Amino acid sequence: xxxxxxxxxxxxxxxxxxxxxxxxxxxxxxxxxxxxxxxxxxxxxxxxxxxxxxxxxxxxxxxxxxxxxxxxxxxxxxxxxxxxxxxxxxxxxxxxxxxxxxxxxxxxxxxxxxxxxxxxxxxxxxxxxxxxxxxxxxxxxxxxxxxxxxxxxxxxxxxxxxxxxxxxxxxxxxxxxxxxxxxxxxxxxxxxxxxxxxxxxxxxxxxxxxxxxxxxxxxxxxxxxxxxxxxxxxxxxxxxxxxxxxxxxxxxxxxxxxxxxx
Length: 262
Hints:
Blueprint: H1 2-17, E1 27-28, E2 34-35, H2 37-53, E3 57-60, H3 65-74, E4 79-86, H4 88-93, E5 99-106, E6 109-117, E7 122-127, E8 132-134, E9 137-138, E10 152-155, H5 162-170, E11 176-178, H6 183-192, E12 197-203, H7 205-217, E13 221-223, E14 238-243, H8 246-261
């Protein structure tokens, strides 16, 4: 199944998404986020092809909220979760940091995940218990573990409350911070070891379904702001504290929780 999903993702990227790169106009959804003709076309193509691989409920980012919630309920035993273009703003502006994200979920958790950046040809993938890989190379790629003070962090400041975001920005416990605007790739780059730490204030299933599996299969650790069990709480607003190295994760989690209280 994994090889078939990888093939579908690559084909949709080549046939549907990349011919529209820098060629489509932006539209605005009710929540203020952008979408394009490419998002909708890619989602339709992916869900159609994935159903042929494994018949299951299907949920895409470009569906209505009601449709998403209905598919989530129907898909406990099996659900395809798709983000056709994660990083639409980057896609629109010509920044080569966006990806297709596909996951097969069971009981609310990913069991198969594929994330592909068609510009860099980076294909990340994992299956539950089967390890995580980038173009055939096992993750992580970078295995050096820094101290917390010398770590590179990916932090989405926009989705943190203002007081805590200001503290992270002004008094970080790490050496350097990035945010490139594509959740799926942020998970993957943490799994690869390119980022040492990851922090996000709230994600939806298509944001974390594939990426969380890839990080977990690479040996990484994750939790939420208020729960050591990452899967506790609402699936529609899931915060992320994560790191590849377990020891670094503990330090990072403790710092985040302590400083969110102040």
